[in-house]
Amino acid sequence: MNRFAIGFVGFLLAASLCFGQAAAAPATVAAAVGHGAFPVKTTKTLDSSKLKQGDVIEVETSGSFKLPDGTVVPKGSKLEGRVVSSKARSKGDPDSELTLAFDRLNIQGGKQLALKGAVQAVYPPADEPMGPNMSTAGTSAGGSGAGASPTAAGVGLTNTKNGSNMESSSTAQSVIDVKATGVQGIDNLQLDNGVLTSKGKNVKLSGGVRMIVHVDIFG
To answer: How far apart are CA 195 and CA 129, in angstroms?
Structure first.
């Protein structure tokens, strides 16, 4: 084989290697088109003693809000996610733990949105009396004065009820603040950086428990 043939074969091998590396390169991560926080509620019990990592979960929006492109997300739309970590307290463990992540919003009418979301705050169900640590309407952590609009914090995530309570109940304990962080009015439950922990044998969120979920929306 002459020098020209050897050089040509070498060129083909190098080109093939470069193509393979380019094909293996990770896809560019899409930029978020909006971010903010909105209220949801559990539709069934989430129990760290029964859930495991990777389990699919679903909650529903408890208020209506508008996206940056003008799309209205009605109350009752489904927010899907998964269990990141889940454990019951066992011998040698100081706490039980539950971590949830959300990745898709199913809007009534068939539209789906990809997103990245985590739990920002937790409230008891609307029909339960306030616990000893529960603030009155509009005065929870990060909130403003009573009667303030629970407007979603972030780009375009705006309450479509123009300052009215996102829940149907008119009782004070039903008012939640999307700027709040941590656990509001539930004893023996803590929230730190999206991780729920309890000194009890398990972290248990019964049906109707309300959460504020902070999200980045990718469209």
So the answer is: 25
